[in-house]
Design a protein that fits this description.
It is a single chain. The protein is mainly α. It has a domain of 186 residues. Helix content is 67%, strand content 6%. Strands 1-2 form a two-stranded antiparallel ribbon. A two-stranded antiparallel ribbon has the order 3-4. The chain has a two-stranded antiparallel sheet with strand order 5-6. Helix 2 runs antiparallel to helix 3. The longest helix has 42 residues.
Length: 468
Amino acid sequence: MDIIDSTAIDLARIQFAFTVGVHIVFPAITIGLASFLTVLEGLWLKTGRDVYQDLYTFWVKIFALNFGMGVVSGLVMAYQFGTNWSGFSYFAGSITGPLLTYEVLTAFFLEAGFLGVMLFGWEKVGRGLHFFATAMVSLGTLISTFWILSSNSWMHTPQGFEIVGGRAVPVDWLAVVFNPSFPFRLAHMAIAAFLATAFFVGASGAWHLLRGHDTPAARTMLSMAAWMALIVAPIQAVVGDAHGLNTLEHQPAKIAAIEGHWENAPGEPSPLILAGWPDMKAEKTRYAIEIPVLGSLILTHSLDKQIPALKSFPPEDRPNSTVIFWTFRLMVSMGMLMILAGLLSLWLRRGQKLYTSRPFLAFWLCMGPSGLIALLAGWVTTEMGRQPWVVYGLLRTVDAVSPLTVSQVSISLVLFVLVYFALFGAGIAYMLKLVHKGPQAHGTEPVPEGGAGQQRTPARPLSAADEK
């Protein structure tokens, strides 16, 4: 194989990370919004309350925008497999290719088939059929998640294959699809998408409540998001713990790098390093703040077992602990704040201050992007933690990249950045403009009065004019 400049490899990795990082935001919101829209329409059919219809007609616009941007940004991924990562395509194409084809045949066709009815059929088809179309689109997003996560998980925990002529050939498709890390990563990703959407929706409600637009729609958005945080955020912590134990079993070097743990003292349990600066050259974590024994307790669920140490792996097989040490802690911090937001919402709900506590509303508004931040931090952790492997234990990154020059990758990277910021920047700006405008009420539900952060009868008559 041709010797490739290490700078070209790094640029190719940066380009893929950039495009994936931009892309994953849109499917995450799409997954969450599709399920949210299904719940809203179901509640509207059951209760007849206009607020659910108002919220549906509002959020379906944002869903359509996210869906479109997700499709466009996703096309780039297949493009890069052929241009920048031909070594990976040659080695694993007979496994990842069919898995992605199954995603198109089962999920994308399902979504595309019912999306038109969902977006344009409100006044053209019956209520039952429209609800069915919404549910099918929601199901399609989850099926898409299934196949994408199966393909990606196989790269982390490959099984069900044989190496024939230097290529991975599937011999057991059930083993390929349901590889050891897949169930944990699927659940973790789906829940992350639901939480990211919940905090986005809740932040929209908090924004309008803070501005004095205390409408049934704003209250409903915040209330539903708060229930989601209260119930689902702790579940995500449990799923994350199970995912961590699975990673410890199959990718111990990743766990050692995440923990910034370099060596074990003989016969002693491993501490938990809360903060510090892992130094890859010095092979130590500088300025470490440790809690004795807690590392063993969390990661092995025992008081005496030790967790893997980075020095037990060859230097060329160690992930970059400096980066993933902190991205993991960023993800966990966001998760803890989500749990706190859910608990605070329950406490304020009991005191009937959920919609009137300005500090809480401001807190939730600030938490609006927390789900997406946690999602991106988690993906950086898991993907960089797999390095230096593309297919763990089988194909190294240096062997997966195409024979490219620095100038070739640099030009394409610059073009991607410019186009992405122009195209998706405009899309995101328009989406935020829609959120700023908020749902439009078409029903007759009463508007609450009085209280901090609530809409009131203005003291000055001209203040009652609608904002434009």
